[in-house]
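Shipment paperwork, digital attachment
Item: protein structure file
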Amino acid sequence: MLRGFYTAASGMMTQQRHQEALGNNLANINTPGYKADQATIRSFPEMLIQAQGKKQLPVNRNVHLPISETIGSLNTGVYVQEFVPNFAQGGIRETNIGTDLAITQDAVPDETGGIFFRVQNEAGEERLTRNGNFTIDGNSFLVTNQGYYVLNNAGTPIETGGRDFTVTDTGMLQTDTETIPLGLAYVNDVNELTKEGDNLYDGESIAVPADAEFTVLQGFLEQSNVDAQATMTDQLNAYRMFELNQRVLRAYDESLGKAVSDIGRLG
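Attachment content:
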């Protein structure tokens, strides 16, 4: 009985974490370049139940032979193993703002490959993002909305000199005095990236391969890839699963209460 008690409790905890991830996805539905988190739910290892006993042999001497009979398997509950971002491309929205940039990815060498903007976080470490909602700071540097420097292909912050600029479809930032290649990075397997706060990712990257087909759009933003309708449906299903486990837990609790009170009364 206690094992079933813990199994139901693990189901409640799993659905609670799932619900939190779905709520976070909905909260970021308007965040440019946001990639929805998907919960991977796994079961704990199953246990094989066997009945142990003895069988008396038909001989004069009182001989008993130990026997073991397999009853079946017992599941010991579930848990959220990890949250995996869905890197499917979000929709593209025109903003007509010159500092807004979006990457449309047409074809890459690897099925799980992806192209990202290179930025520098507050600790001076290079990170990747698909959020091209950039702006110009007070020192004429191209930065993210959080104030992180946008990098060029040499890994240094892009300084615009306060001048207007245009960005070509290959990622060349052009002012009236110079041309600066945007820092674009390629990741062979996006599923190996580690998601951090502020829509940033950490992981190994290389230069964009020559055979990759992509376009950098100026005055456009990639939208979040969260499907609001599907997410709300998943939230409802998670709530129902939580409620079912809660009922099972309550039934176990009532059974334990009766066992304690009734057996104590009989004694």
